[in-house]
UniProtKB/TrEMBL annotation:
Keywords: Transferase
Stored PANTHER family: GTP PYROPHOSPHOKINASE YJBM (PTHR47837), GTP PYROPHOSPHOKINASE YWAC (PTHR47837:SF2)
Transmembrane intervals: none
Family matches, as Pfam families: RelA_SpoT
Name of protein: GTP pyrophosphokinase
Domain RelA/SpoT positions: 57-180
CDD domains (alphabetical): NT_Rel-Spo_like
Known EC number: 2.7.6.5
Recorded metabolic or biological pathway in which this protein acts: Purine metabolism; ppGpp biosynthesis; ppGpp from GTP: step 1/2
Entry superkingdom: Bacteria
Length: 247
């Protein structure tokens, strides 16, 4: 009976420590998502174009963490897990165009409290199966009541087409228990090439639209300046001053 009480006490302690351990990672994920949402809202409200389509986040379950610990053959301790498993929490940023991926990556890396731990470009160097994405492992500070903790967060940045392909490949991978039939592997590789071609075509269209819009904006500015200087319009000084913000 006394032994059971000791075991129960130990289990409660382990559960408490695991809960606190996972909570710190959740806070790190919250910090990262706040930064990304600020960028997204800034683009929505200040700039003419928002490169972020949507943001998805996830936290590994304790069971998934334990499986990875066993697979990597590392010590079953919090410190060992912290140092060796860097994808306990992650965020996926979905963009419209390939060029957006590198812009967002650069914006993230410019943040002073973020440290880049690892950088993998599977867009310039796709995986053999056709997988494409930009992966970042970042270290971000979490300020607790009694200390500061550095938390690893994985960021994946990809286009809508890349994300659609990766989602389908993931479902097929686990449906066939990680052994995909050869014919489906070939189909997925072909689909990856088609998605890649689509991204390139959409990027080109995006650039052409941007060039046309740039010309239209220049013409609008010229027309406005010409209107102001045209004596036949009789724009009063008071009317023009109303557009100037007083200091």
């Amino acid at each position: 009976m006394e032994m059971n009480q000791v075991q129960l006490k130990e289990l409660r302690q382990i559960r408490h420590e695991m809960k606190r351990f996972m909570m710190i990672y959740k806070f790190g994920l919250d910090e990262m998502n706040t930064k990304l949402n600020i960028l997204k809202e800034e683009f929505q409200n200040v700039h003419e174009y928002n490169p972020i389509e949507h943001i998805k986040s996830r936290i590994k379950t304790p069971e998934s963490i334990m499986k990875k610990v066993s697979r990597k053959n590392i010590d079953m301790s919090q410190e060992s897990i912290k140092q060796n498993i860097h994808d306990i929490v992650g965020t996926r940023v979905i963009c419209s165009f390939r060029s957006d991926i590198y812009k967002i990556s650069e914006m993230i890396q410019m943040q002073k409290d973020i440290t880049v731990v690892d950088f993998k470009d599977y867009i310039k160097n796709p995986k053999p199966n056709g997988y494409q994405s930009l992966h970042l492992i970042l270290s971000i500070p979490v300020l607790l009541s009694d200390r500061e903790e550095q938390v690893f967060v994985e960021i994946q940045i990809r286009t809508v087409a890349m994300d659609f392909w990766a989602s389908l490949e993931h479902k097929i991978y686990y449906k066939y228990n990680k052994t995909i039939p050869e014919n489906l592997t070939k189909e997925l590789t072909n689909a990856a090439s088609i998605a890649n071609e689509l991204d390139h075509r959409m990027e080109q269209i995006h650039k052409e639209v941007g060039n046309i819009k740039g010309l239209e904006d220049t013409e609008d500015e010229f027309d406005f300046l010409q209107m102001i200087n045209d004596n036949t319009n009789h724009l009063t000084t008071t009317f023009l001053k109303s557009f100037i913000r007083e200091e």
